[in-house]
Structures are given as C-alpha cells and as structure tokens.
Amino acid sequence: MDYLDKDGIRIAAPLVEFVESKCLPGSGVSADAFWKGAADIFKKFSPENDKLLAFREELQTKIDAWHEANPGPITDAPAYEAFLREIGYLVDEPAKFSITTENVDPEIATMAGPQLVVPSLNARFVLNAANARWGSLYDAFYGTDALPGEAKGPGYDEERGAQVVEKAKSLLDEFAPLASGSHKDVTGYKIEGGALTPALKDPSLFAGFTGLPDAPESVLLKHNGLHIEILIDRSTNVGSTDAAGVTDILMEAALTTIVDLEDSVAAVDCADKIDAYTNWLGLMKGDLVESFDKGGKTLTRKLASDKDFTTPDGKAATLQGRSTLLVRNVGHLMKTEAVLLEDGSQAPEGVLDALITNLISLQDVGPNGRRVNSPAGSIYVVKPKMHGPDEVAFTDSLFAAVEDLVGLSRGTIKVGVMDEERRTSANLAACIKAVSGRIVFINTGFLDRTGDEMHTSMKAGPMILKADMKASDWIQAYEERNVAIGLACGLSGKAQIGKGMWAAPDRMGDMLDQKIGHPKTGANTAWVPSPTAATLHAIHYHQVEVMGLRDEIAKRPTPSLERLLSVPLAKDTNWPTDVVERELENNAQGILGYVVRWIDQGVGCSKVPDVNDIGLMEDRATLRISSQHMANWLMHGICTPAQVDAAFERMAAKVDGQNAGDAAYEPMAPKFDGLAYEAAKALVYQGAVQPSGYTEPLLHAYRVKKKAS
C-alpha cells in the first residue's frame, strides 16, 4: 500500500484521498490543519496508549502470580482486595459528585426506550436500524412468536390478523385507556375542540394528529415519554375490515442506535475501515442510500423523513423520524495499517477512529452542520473495552485534543463508557469521574464482562459451567452496582444507563416475557437485535415508567465490592464425562459457527444457529466467553486436548450442516485444515495468553491471511 507523509506520520494514500475528498469538504477544517493536528495527536497519544496496554499486562502478571500462590476460591477477601489496591488495580473511591454533561438530546438524557447496535459495514442494516425509530406493532406481532401461533398461507391470513388487532388494541387500552369503553369498539376517531373523540381517560395523552380533524389519517398519543401513532386508512386490507379504519399502530421504538466499528464488524485493513467510515459519513450527511435485490425486485433504502403533525391546539409540530445515532469506536488494543508512526510501527486504531469519526460528525454539528442527528449539537461516541479510570481519562484527553483540532467547544464529543471489563466495574465511580463533563452512557454487557472475569482469574482454578454464570453472585452485584453507581453519580436526566442484548431474534415471545426486567432495574435503555425486537421491547417502557422508579432504586444499598470481586470458581469439578463433553461441544460449536463467517466471509455479526439449532445474534463478545471458558478448563485439567480436538471435529460437521444452504460457505469437515478452523482452535489453545482474553488479534491475523489468499 502507498503511504503519504504527513508531518512525519505516514498515512495510507486511500485514507488520505477519502478524508480530503469526502470528509473535509463542508467540515470547516482545512486539509493542512487537519493532517498537522492529526500527526501531533498520533505522536502524543500513541506512546501513552502503549503504556496503558503495558500496565494491563503488568497487572495481569501480578494477579496470575497471586493466584498461583493462593490457588482456589478466595478465602480472605480483605487480603485479596488489599492486594488489588497495592498493585493499582483498585483505586480510591472518589468523593460524591455529579456529572456535568450538557447539551444532551432527550433520546439519551430523559427518555427511556430500546437501543439497537448495528454493524457499520452493512449499509442496508445501518439504514434499517436508523429508521427503526418507528415500528409497526401489527407487523411485529403478525410475523413473530410474540403471539401464539403463526400466519398461514402466502397471502394475508385474516385469522392471524384478527389476533394481532385484538392484542394491539388491548395494549392501547392499557397505555391510553378511553374514558369509557375500549379501543376495540371504536367506530371512528376525530378531533373536536382540541381533544380526541372518543375521549381518553387522561386527555393529556393525546399529542396530535395528521389529516383533517374530522377525518384524521393518524392519531398521535404520548405515554411514558414515548409516542404511539394510530394509522387510519379504510382502503387497506386491514383498515377496510376495522370498525375505526385502523390499518396499523406504530410504536416509537429504537430511540437510539449504536453504529458499530468494533465487535460486530470484521474490519481488518485500511479498505475495511474506509468502508465503515463511508457509511457513518452517509448517515451524518443524510445521503446514505443502499439498493438490493429481494424476490427478484430491486429495492432502495434511504433515511426516513421526520414526521409532521398538528398538535391538539392546532400548531404544526415535527417528530424525529430516525434513531439518534451513536458511533462505537474500537478500544485501545488494536493497531491499524492505515497509519504508520515515525518508527514504522502501526498506530492505535482507536486514535484513528477518534479522529475520523468525529471529523465526519462535523457534517451534523460543525459550523455548516445539519443538526439533524443531534439538534442539541453533540457527537456521541461509545468507547468499549476500557480497563479502569486511567484508560477512561486517556479517552477524555484524546477527545479534548480532537475537539481542539476540529474547532469544537470542550465537551461537544460525548462518551459512552461500556462497563464490560472487571477493572472498570470495580472502579466505576472513578471511571465516570474521569469523563464527568462528557459522559452520556454506561451499560452492562454479560458476555465481554464474563470473558474478562475468567481471563483475569484464569489461574485461580476451573470456572463454573457457562450456563451458571448468569446466576453467580458477582454478576448480580455487577448488574445492580452499575445502576446504583450511575444514579449516585447523577446520570439520571443527563445520560443513559443501559443493559445488554437479547440475543435470540426468533424468540420474541420469550423476550416479551423476560426483557421487561431491564427497565425494572432503572435502566433507561437496553439492547435489542432487530428493528422488530425494538418495536416489541418498546412495550416494556410503556409498562414500566423507568424514571419514576429511580428514586426508590437509589435508596437501595449498593452491593459490596467484595461480592463483585468474588471469582466464579467451581466448588465441585467432578463432573460426569458427558457433562464435560456437552460443555465443550456447546463452546466449540459457538466458536466455529461464528468464526467460519468472520474469517471466510468477513461477516462480523449475524444470526448463528447454536448447538440446539436456535438462531442467536453473535459477535466477538460471544466468542470471547466461549474461548476463555475452554482455555480455563484446559489449563486446570477439566478436559484434555484430545477431548477439545474431538469436540471441535464433531461440531465442525454440525456447523457444516447448519450452513449447507449458503453457497458462499466453505465446509470444514472432513479435512479440518481451513483457516477458519485453525483460527477457532487457536482462540482456545492460545486463549490463556491473549491480551485480556480478547479475540481480535487472532481473528484479524487469520482474516488478513484469508483476504490475501
């Protein structure tokens, strides 16, 4: 690849061309100023980044040595905590404070609703996610198991449709009850004297309409801060059979979407990075368009328009038609070929992301910006995989340097801190304090957090069964501490407190039953795997008034640090052989099913059938927990290399069968010698020595080999 010298830093020529021809025009920043400032940032922050990574390894070495000297369950918790403080793993709790973040859009600060995470490399998925601010409740019920049964026949199933309408209108009765009677019995809606007829029990829930007052095309309701739109059209199949002419009910659903450059993408070189940046640029400029073939027809996706309404008092009003978008940069670990430092080494990829994604975001909040994504004038960057407050402080300084470079006022670039590493969880208040002027998001993530839990304590002993992790004491403390500390630090009304992903997109009935638990914790957002799931999860935020719960939740005692630091070691490892083999197969199948698409096809996130043929949305976090679990059991003799090899071979044949209908799929059996298969086994056999148990170094190396071949 050709490189161009920019003040001693060598930038890949394709990246220079992309920045100068696509990103800088309209930004208000000149090319000379940008490259000079970027070079200064790389020179300053690259060595600091390396020092932080070296400190991670130093801490891990000391923790490994401690566990070797004190094997098994921790019997003296105070001594263990004192050790962690002595080596700098734990820091002192900061004095009570409240964050000072300003200019945050309501979708993040004061509203409660679902959040999507979408891979930045797939423009079609990105557009679907951005447009998932509004979703059809009828479609969500009709085509999923959220209601018992399923639609029959190739055409419209009237029986299923009646079932859907019955359920949807019962929800209207729950969220916006009439003064008398039921929405099921309404024969027509109209607006009289600024009020909805038939009258609502709480007239303030009526928020507006479209069309004419005596023949509205839609009726807008607002409950718990979220809108519901009743669409009226008697010319449709559904509307013609409905007494009130209701053809659909739209839910305000995915308030926010994270456009991901990290765990859900396979971006391993400069070309991949430019593709990812290009989609973010299209979102910020508002001109992202994607055409694709479906059923022999060419369809085109573009960003949805805003929604115009008439308010009850007759004034014009507009509601956002799209999710508020955040962009997830990569963490501190990986380096990129797109930028070479003065000594010829690769620069930190996270520093490049900070420069380019924020430069692109000037199309929205810069001097000539559209102010469509963020009318409040902020850029929202989620930063993953940070270990402790020193790494969070590094991000704060990096973002401040970028603000200075592109002419933004301090605090314009907001940060979401993902609470997914053990050292961050144990020092969460100090981490929040380190970015107290720009933080807009904390969340919990079971998979990555469990992966780091296992890697940190790898040498302590064998871990419990993977399925038992969610019931372990440390994770209960982790989930509760995250909310409690977030509330204590003043995040309510200024930032999101989020919870993790529902990973089974085909099990919407189970999601409706279970995921209501997330808003009940006081979290004002939680991740969902699809726009349909967002529409259904929105129901939970009508059933639970999150902000009203927080005062009571804040009074509860915060779980102790001792509980958080308890290591999930198995007390009895005398498992029957069949139990061990099932666990190995479960892990091996999950690893193979994901890796074969990552390495061979460059797919970083997709619905992967599990060992029981249940489709799960998988990304690198899933891979991390499975590979670390197998590596731990190997280290402690719970299984042998021969058992691991046998499990991989059995599961390779299973995964081949699960992908038999994919023309691009490359089978692993019977030779077991492809790059994807090699990568999967390397993740286990080299898992104990991977930095923090991360999968990126090996995945990237094997994907680069595959692309070269």
From TrEMBL:
Gene Ontology CC: one annotated term: cytosol
Malate synthase N-terminal domain span: 16-76
Transmembrane region(s): none
Coiled-coil segments on the chain, per record: none
Pathway terms, separated by semicolons: Carbohydrate metabolism; glyoxylate cycle; (S)-malate from isocitrate: step 2/2
Domain named Malate synthase TIM barrel: residues: 324-557
MF term (GO), any: malate synthase activity
Binding positions for acetyl-CoA per the UniProt entry: V117, R124, F125, S264, R301, P529
Enzyme Commission code(s) on record: 2.3.3.9
Modified residues (Cysteine sulfenic acid (-SOH)): C605
Alphabetically ordered keywords of this record: Acyltransferase, Cytoplasm, Glyoxylate bypass, Magnesium, Metal-binding, Oxidation, Transferase, Tricarboxylic acid cycle
Amino-acid positions noted as binding Mg(2+) in the UniProt annotation, renumbered to this chain: E420, D448
Residue ranges constituting the Malate synthase C-terminal domain according to the UniProt record: 580-673
One GO biological process term: glyoxylate cycle
Binding-site list for glyoxylate: R328, E420, G445, F446, L447, D448
Cofactor annotation: Mg(2+)
InterPro entries assigned: Malate_synth_C_sf, Malate_synth_sf, Malate_synthase_TIM, Malate_synthG, MS_C, MS_N, MS_N_TIM-barrel_dom, MSG_insertion
Top-level division of the source organism's lineage: Bacteria
Localisation: Cytoplasm
Subunit structure, interactors included: Monomer.
Role: Involved in the glycolate utilization. Catalyzes the condensation and subsequent hydrolysis of acetyl-coenzyme A (acetyl-CoA) and glyoxylate to form malate and CoA.
Family, similarity comment: Belongs to the malate synthase family. GlcB subfamily.
Record protein name field: Malate synthase G
Gene, per the UniProt record: glcB
